[in-house]
Amino acid sequence: MSIEVGSKVEGKVTGIANFGAFIDLGNNKTGLVHISEVSDSYVENINEELEVGQTVTVKVLSIADDGKIGLSIRKAQEKPAAEASKPRPSSNRGRPSSSNKRPAAKKDDFDSLMNSFLKDSEDRLTSLKRHTENKRGGRGGRKG
Q1: CB of 82 within 8 A of CB of 92?
Q2: Staple partner for 20: which of 34, 92, 107, 111, CB 3.0–4.6 Å?
Q3: What is the reported pTM?
C-alpha cells in the first residue's frame, strides 16, 4: 500500500515520547503522531491514550522532503454528522474567553485569525510597556 497525503493506513505504535508516538506503517516507513493529533480532547499524558504494540488507524497529514511522515489519529476517526458540528470544549486554563469577540457561526480563515492575534498581542505589549515605564519614571530615568 502506497503512503500518500490524505490516505488512511493501519500502523503499530513502536515508541512513545512526551511529544507524540512513532507509528510503524510497514515497508520500513515510520511516521509521527504529534500529541495534539492523538485525540479531539486535551491529552496531558500520551501514555494514557496509547501504548507500544497497539494497532491504530492514522491519516497521513504530510510527507516532508527528508522522508518524515506526519500522522493524525484524530483526523482518521470517522465522526457522525451531529458530533462533527459540535464545538470542541476549550481548555482556557484561566485565560479570558474569546468567544464573545466574534460570532461562532462566522468561519475565520487562518490569515484573519493570525492578524487578529497579532493586533491583540501588539496592544497587550504596548500596554505592558507603558505600565512598566510609568513605574520606572519613563525614559531616561532620573538625572541627578
Answers
A1: no
A2: 34
A3: 0.53
Is 10:73 a contact under the CB 8 Å cutoff?
Answer: no
pLDDT in tens, 101-123: 555 445 568 888 888 888 898 88
* pLDDT tens profile 22-70: 999 988 899 999 999 998 899 889 999 999 999 999 999 999 989 899 9
Domain residues for the domain of 115 are: 103-135
At 38, the amino acid letter reads V
Cell numbers linked to 13: 505504535
Residue 73 lies in a domain: yes
Cα gap 36→20, rounded to integer Å = 8
Residue 53, C-alpha cell as written in the block: 504494540
Same-domain check for residues 72 and 19: yes
Pair type for strands 8-17 and 20-26 = antiparallel
